[in-house]
Amino acid sequence: MKIFYSLVTAFQTYSRIPMPPVAWKLENRRYALCFFPLVGAVIGAVLLLWKRVAACLGVGAFLDGTVSALIPLAVTGGIHMDGFCDTADARASWADREKKLSIMKDPHVGSFAVVFLVAYLLLQAALMGEIGNGRAARVVAASFVLSRALSGLAAVFFKNAREGGMLHENTEPARKKTTAAVLVLTAVAASAVMLRCGPVLGAAAMAGAGLCFLHYRIVAYREFGGTTGDIAGWFLQRCELSMLVCAAAAEKIAVWAAGAGGLRI
Fold first, then answer.
1. 60: which DSSP letter?
2. Are 228 and 169 in contact (CB under 8 A)?
3. How far apart are CA 125 and CA 68, in angstroms?
4. N or C: which end of the chain has fewer CB within 10 A?
């Protein structure tokens, strides 16, 4: 039952999917991060379902992309986007480390957060409308799993910038060796699916995720002294957008190359 409680806790924490009530106890959170990528699997499945419906109904690219961009927000309730906005505000302040951490704790939304949020959603919607219902859509669907596996691994291994907070509460009781092993296997499986859906597209998306993860490590330690729940959300959103950008760009380039020289995507 502890595994089931950890599963429910993961979905209660990282999604708005209705779940049976489970007490917020230490033992119920030990393996919660192991199931974090399953939230991404739900997002990916809903995205592919919508892409199929949009293709059958002949929905235009604008509506297709807009709904596709809203699906992750609807499933998660915006928990990671909240961290993205808070971190964007903190980094844009160019303040010292302590001031940045205090900005992230401020419940008010700053102007930079609004700017970055609007830019993010516009780019995400536009790209989602471009990828259609083909291989790129399947690569992007799997990317929601990979981003969460990488985010979970960072939560386990990266230093916390401060005591307390949701990230600390979820990582402190975690069985770290078991959690890390599960997340590594999940990341490998998600990567394999992405490559199976399209070797060029999958490799491009994985490269984007890898670079984004490296940048996450550098920024978190250099600017904040470690990671927090907000910075983890900032990384997850950027990682997903990076994989979307890479997959969409690779699809356009590969289609052109296929017509010119026969490159298979």
1. -
2. no
3. 7
4. N
For CA atoms 175, 179, 18, 164, give the dihedral sign: positive
The model's pLDDT over 210-264, given as tens digits with 9 standing for 90+, comes to 999 999 999 999 999 999 999 999 999 999 999 999 999 998 887 777 665 555 5
* Cα(176)–Cα(183) distance, integer angstroms: 10
Dump pLDDT digits (tens) for 31-77.
Answer: 889 999 999 999 999 999 999 999 999 999 999 999 999 999 999 99
Residue with tokens 């010292």: 96
Only one residue has tokens 């307390």, namely 164
Q: Which of 120, 155, 121 is nearest to 10 (CA)?
A: 155
User: In the chain, where does DSSP find H-type helix?
Assistant: 2-14, 36-57, 61-76, 79-92, 97-105, 111-131, 135-157, 165-171, 176-197, 199-224, 229-261
- CA 89/CA 109 separation, integer angstroms: 8
